[in-house]
Amino acid sequence: MLAGVPVHVIQRGNNRGPCFVNDEDRNFYLFHLARGLGRCGCELHAYCLMTNHVHLLLTPKGAESCAVLMKHMGQLHSQYFNKRYKRTGSLWEGRFRSCLVQSERYVLASRNTFGSATAPKSANRCMPGYLARSPTTSGSRR
What fold, for 7-132? Predict the structure, then answer.
C-alpha cells in the first residue's frame, strides 16, 4: 500500500457465506471499525456492509496501516461471529483484496454523499455506486 493513496478494500465471507446476519452484527463491526481507524492509522471515506462481504474506501496513513486494520477487524469479527452463532472455522475468504483509487471523483462522490465516515454510526450506510463504477477500472490492482 502507498501511504496517503485511497484504496477500495473488499473482504468476502468464506464461500460467500454470511458475515452479517442482522444489524447487531453490523453495529458490532462498525463500532470496532471506528475504534480501529485511529489506532491503525487509516481515514475512512465510505463503507458498505453487505450480507456476505464488506467494502471500505479508506486512505492509509502508513504503508502497513490498511493491513493492520484489516487483520484486526478480521480477527475480532470472526471471534465475535463464531461465538455468537456457535460455529468454528474461518469466517473470511482469505486475505482482503484492495485496489488503488486513482480517481478523485470517486473519493469526492463518496464524501459528498455521506460526509465524513470517520465515526460510522449506521449499519445501513453504503458507499454510493460501488456496483456501477469500480475503481479497478483505473488499471491499478493489488
Answer: Alpha-Beta Plaits (3.30.70)
Average pLDDT, whole number, for the chain?
80
Q: Domain residue spans in the chain? A: 7-132
Per-residue confidence (pLDDT) for residue 130, from 0 to 100: 39
pTM, 2 dp: 0.77
**Mean pLDDT confidence for 44-63:** 93
Q: Which segments of the chain are extended strands (E)?
A: 7-12, 42-49, 53-60, 97-100
pLDDT of the residue at 126: 59
Q: pLDDT at residue 116 above 50?
A: no
Spell out the residues 6+ positions from residue 96 whose beta carbon is closer than 8 angstroms to its own: 9, 10, 11, 70, 74
Tell me the CA distances in angstroms from 131 to 48, 109, 136, one per residue in order: 11, 14, 12
Half-sphere exposure of 35 (CA within 13 A, CB side): 9
Asked if 53 and 12 touch (Cβ cutoff 8 Å), the reply is yes
Hey, what's the cell of 17? 457465506
pLDDT at 1: 82
- What is the helix (H) or strand (E) element at residue 36, kind and residue range? helix 23-40
- For CA atoms 28, 95, 36, 83, the dihedral sign is positive
